[in-house]
Amino acid sequence: MLLLPLHRPLTRATFPVVTALLVLINVFVFFGLQAGDQARVQEALTDYIPSRLAEIEAPAYERWLIERGGRAEDLAEFRALRDEDARHAFVGQHTLVDREFEPALRTGRLFPDASTFDEWRRLRAGYDATLSSIPTLRYLLRASEFDPVRLVSSAFLHADFGHLFGNMLFLMIIGLLVEGALGPWRFLAVYLLGAVGANLASIAFHWGDATGGLGASGAIAALMGCFCLVWGTQPVRFFYWIGVWFDYVRAPALWLFPAWLGWELFNLLVRDDSNVAFEAHAGGLVCGALMGAALAATGQVRTAFIRDAAPDAPAKDDRWERAQRHIGRMQLAEADALLTALAAEAPWRVDVQLARYRVARNGGRAEQATARALQALSIEAPDANSVRAQGELLAELDAQASAIPSDVRLSFARRAIAFGVLDAAERALQPLTADVAPDTASQLWFDLALRHRDAGAQAAHVRCLRHLTERHPQQPQAVKARFLLENG
Known about the structure:
By secondary structure, this protein is mainly α. Helices cover 68% and strands 5% of the residues.
């Protein structure tokens, strides 16, 4: 599921400076400070697995897991490994983030004798120096450890480029709306405090586990929660994508909060084997929502940015509504002026052209009304509803015995068949005269018959086939029609 507010365009007036700086900092950290960290971690583990240090620490780690008691799954997984290298790799990977194991080792109680303990301290010193030289390990979040620096620093680290790109894309989109509504300094405070809140939620959820976390998603989730409460009941335009359904809709910003939070909690319950910190996302959303509610309650929000009528927002185009009001009051000249301007700017709008036709007809301008009707019928309508409106106009003109050129009928019939407005297509084809090329007309009748069949309208399917064989018996389509009638 994807729910993404896309309510304000990115312009010079709305450009979120602090958001952009945060993006640049995250990019610099990933491509600068973290460059090569994955390779260095892998190299350290590769050296660790066959080492004497691993031989010493592996049995100590098993004793530690037994002593801890609450790590039954880790103990079972460790004991299931029969290969010595696999056990060493398990220990090496887990002890990168297991902050309770190393202090236990330093007490000496996990070793069989003092000489082994002394040997471990000598070997461990070099290994610790190697690990501490890797920025990602030095600043990532570790469960079971409260470290104020890591609570913030881990929000600027990323696992790979895809992780970075996704987070920065969301940060720019949500940052545009939140920074504009709060101002740069309050926005920055929400981002940093949100990172802390999200990471505290992750630590609380994973306390006692051997795991770590990194990424800006918790801080971004806090911005999302803040956005919902700061924008409140203000309708916003957002994009949704659920399975195979996607569209743009408008809804109060507040409605997004339960949708976002529910999605994170759902994933937290059903996707416990993923590497995504859904608990941090949920914690960030709640933390950000609390901050957003406090900021809104104390009036620390830029309401001019949030309102649709904000100075930097384009004025709403209400000419269509005004034209409808003029028509209702029979103020036809005023309505015609507005509709003519709209038609010039959006010549594809069938509703505008139809309204212009009715204004001319109601005003007694028959010749102009006919010309506008033909213009409305000639538009390549973009959807089925517009085609249906054109079909109603065609039926109205036929009832008035108005002369409609054959090319207009043919064009409309093709359009109606394509959009499945089949009754209107049939009405358009019925009055065609002999001046229409037989191959063109017969092909349209055959296409219409097939669309009726696909729609399950068997009677209409047969009717169109018979019409084709009677009116154009020599055409190739008539041969196909007779075959279908005989074998249908």
